[in-house]
Structures are given as structure tokens and as C-alpha cells.
Amino acid sequence: MSLFRRKKKYSTDTMDNGAKLITAANPKNPVSEQFRTIRTNIHFMSVDKPLRRIAFTSSSISEGKSTVTANMAITWAQDGKKVLLIDADLRRSTLHRTFELPNNRGLTTILTSGLSKIDLNEVIPNSGIKNLDVLTAGPIPPNPSELLNSKRMLNFLKAVEPMYDLVVIDVPPLLEVTDTQVLSDKLDGIVLVVRAGVTQKAGVTRAVEMLKISKARLLGYVLNDADSEDAAYGYGYGYGYGDEE
Ligand SMILES: Nc1ncnc2c1ncn2[C@@H]1O[C@H](COP(=O)(O)OP(=O)(O)OP(=O)(O)O)[C@@H](O)[C@H]1O
Ligand SMILES: [Mg+2]
């Protein structure tokens, strides 16, 4: 047993350079088509109850959440939905890099100052993509879990509801911090991103258990890196609480 745990080599690529927006750059690419298939599958899950607030999470770090979340938000916007994409991964935020937006204000500004003191139109810019507005994370606070679990967060989500058809949220991994679990009861559904060849089966099982405990509605999972020998990015979609990954 070693005294010091070796530091895991997580990618900071999307934190430094932003996620790759294939759906915006090349809507005809097969990968963009895969995102549209995921959109359709998620739509099938919402027949009984309309989904207005969706988050994408994963069991651990660097499994492709931010890439999937941003591309899914674009895919919904391309379908004519008015979409708000929120960066609620306050510890490893990426959206300001992905959409090249300032991050001196963002979600944390709204949560620390309160809605009454904020002009939402000023804090939430358009992404440069039609129908898609983006709320960046804002300055990193010392207490992300409390902020996401606050009444202000719920009030904010309620306040933007009349303005958007869909709110899509990038959240931290379930097994790393409690942020996503505490946020999940404010959402209509959660999709688990699973990275082929990387995500541990035990991690998925534990993540699903945690979602069940917090009474979150698991809509299904996105298999990231599917068929990655053929293309740099590949995506599949499955659903249910089983282990059919
Ligand atoms: N399908 C894929 N094929 C190849 N590389 C990918 C794929 N999906 C994501 N990546 C790369 O993996 C890294 C992590 O992706 P991303 O930041 O989207 O994951 P994340 O789960 O949001 O990570 P974090 O836990 O840091 O928030 C990035 O460098 C990204 O470019
Ligand atoms: Mg991320």
C-alpha cells in the first residue's frame, strides 16, 4: 500500500478549450444524426409527462457529460425548441469555453445575489446558435452543493420555465460529489452518460442506486464512444434501470 494516492490523469481539455460541437459544425455528420436519435429516444420517454428540465450526468469524471450535454442542447435547438443550457458543474465548468462567453457572471451570481437583483437577460446570453441561450457557471463558490440545493435554485428554475421549452443542465458526476443528487429532485429527468471501455460497471450500478434513493427519474443512458474505432465520437442510447450497457 502506498502512502500517497497517485493523482488520476483526468482530461481538462474541455475545461481549457471547450467541448467539440459537432452538431453545430456539421449537422449532416453521422454523429450529429446519432444525437438526433438520442433526442427522439428521450422524447419517447416523455409521452406521459413533458420533460422541461433535463440533466446529463455520469458516475465519474471525464466520461463525456459536457460534450454530450452541449451537443444535445444544440440538437433540441435545431429542432425549433427554445433551449436554456446551464453549466451547473461548478467545479469543472466548461460552457464558457465551449461557447466562448465571459464567465465573470453566471449561475453562481444568480444563486448568491438572488433573482430580484438580477436582470436575467443580461446574465443569460445567446450562444450564437439560434434558439439556444447559455448560462455559464460563474465564479466558483466554496459551497457548490448548498447553492444547487438552495431555494434560490428552485426559484430560478421556475422563473425561466415560461421563457424556454427546455432547460438542459450539465452537472457533476454522481460518485464524486453530492451536487447532482441534491439537484435531482428539482428535475424532470436525468440521463446517465456511460463511456465505453472506461466507465466501471460497479460505478454505473452505484450511480443508478443513488438516483433511485434521491427519487430521480432516470430516463436512460447515452453510451459515449460507441464504435470508436470507426469514428472519433460515437453515441448510442439505452434506457431502463438494468445493466444492459
Ligand atoms: N466520444 C468521444 N470520443 C473521443 N473523445 C471524447 C468523447 N467524448 C468526450 N471525449 C473527450 O473526453 C474528455 C472529457 O469529455 P467531457 O469534458 O465532455 O467529459 P465530462 O464528463 O464533462 O468531464 P468532467 O467530469 O471533467 O466534467 C474531453 O477531452 C473530450 O474531448
Ligand atoms: Mg464536464
Description:
It is a single chain. The protein has eleven helices and seven strands. By secondary structure, it is α/β, with parallel strands linked by helices. It has a single domain (44-238), classed as 3-Layer(aba) Sandwich (Rossmann fold). It has a seven-stranded mixed sheet with strand order 3-2-4-1-5-6-7, with helices on both faces. Helix 11 (201-213) links the parallel strand 5 and strand 6 (218-224). Helix 3 (30-44) crosses helix 4 (65-78). The radius of gyration is 17 Å and the shape is globular. Mean pLDDT is 88; it is low at 240-245. Adenosine-5'-triphosphate is lined by residues 11, 13-14, 19-20, 58, 61-67, 89, 92, 94, 173, 224-225, 228, 232-233. Adenosine-5'-triphosphate (ATP) binds next to helix 1 and helix 4.
Topology:
Blueprint: H1 13-17, H2 22-25, H3 30-44, E1 53-57, H4 65-78, E2 83-87, H5 95-98, H6 107-113, H7 120-123, E3 132-135, H8 144-148, H9 151-160, E4 166-170, H10 179-183, E5 189-195, H11 201-213, E6 218-224, E7 235-238
Parallel strand pairs: 1-4, 1-5, 2-3, 2-4, 5-6
Antiparallel strand pairs: 6-7
Helix pairs in contact: 3-4
Magnesium ion binds near residues 65, 66, 89 and 170.
